[in-house]
Specification:
The complex is a heterodimer of chains A (about 120) and B (about 110). Chain A is built from no helices and eleven strands. Chain A is mainly beta. Helices cover about 0% and strands about 55% of the residues of chain B. The chains are: A mainly beta (about 120), B mainly beta (about 110).
């Protein structure tokens, strides 16, 4: 079975500072990994995903994440935070290969606050 | 706008009552997924329908049921409601049933009083 742990339920950064949101996964099979963002009163939106190939994955809004198998991690980063990045971020894992969205396991979420 | 429409946006009801949440998937999407998001349980998968057929069940209570109609919209029925059922209920849709991105609706916030 797969699971994810997001370290830090709340992260606060200053505008222009580096954003680092941590995600560690547990999976008995090769994983596919995802980051979603949820703005207030909105549904989840896919930021980026790792399936196969390059371990550094670039997503929307300047975010990127690196799959590190040895560390079982998939941390999300952005070089310079913008006020509009304030939201809740969810890491998710599913099994590699043919998967369904019903197989996904989501982390508890990290609320990002950006200070002016 | 994801293209997934959920109604109503907010619902307040009393314990013991029954409610129906509705979801219209994106045009062309055949899969509909229902999720429950609560503070204590996080985001939990409830049930998946593909082209009218139930494909998978997750942590869905027996008091809850769902269906997907021929026009592909879906309804989630919650009955004998308890205080603990208060949560945000999301619907998501995708083109197929595997390996495709799911698009989420804005959710229905259910408050049971």
């Amino acid at each position: 079975a797969q699971s994810v742990t997001q370290l830090g339920s709340h992260v606060s950064v200053s505008e222009g500072a580096l954003v680092l949101l941590r995600c560690n996964y547990s999976s008995s099979v090769p994983p596919y990994l995802f980051w979603y963002v949820q703005y207030p009163n909105q549904g989840l939106q896919l930021l980026l995903k790792y399936t196969t190939g390059a371990t550094l994955v670039k997503g929307i809004n300047g975010f990127e994440a690196e799959f590190k198998k040895s560390e079982t991690s998939f941390h999300l980063t952005k070089p310079s935070a913008h006020m509009s990045d304030a939201a809740e971020y969810f890491c998710a894992v599913t099994r590699a290969g043919l998967y369904s969205n019903n197989d996904m396991r989501f982390g508890a979420g990290t609320r990002l606050t950006v200070k002016p | 706008d994801s293209g997934v429409t959920q109604t109503p946006k907010h619902l307040i009801t009393a314990t013991g009552q029954r409610v129906t949440l509705r979801c219209s998937p994106r045009s062309g999407d055949l899969s509909v997924y229902w999720y429950q998001q609560s503070l204590d349980q996080g985001l939990q998968f409830l049930i998946h329908y593909y082209n009218g057929e139930e494909r998978a069940k997750g942590n869905i209570l027996e008091r809850f049921s769902a269906q997907q109609f021929p026009d592909l919209h879906s309804e989630l029925n919650l009955s004998s409601l308890e205080l603990g059922d208060s949560a945000l209920y999301f619907c998501a849709s995708s083109v197929s049933d595997q390996n495709t991105e799911a698009f989420f609706g804005q959710g229905t916030r259910l408050t049971v009083v």
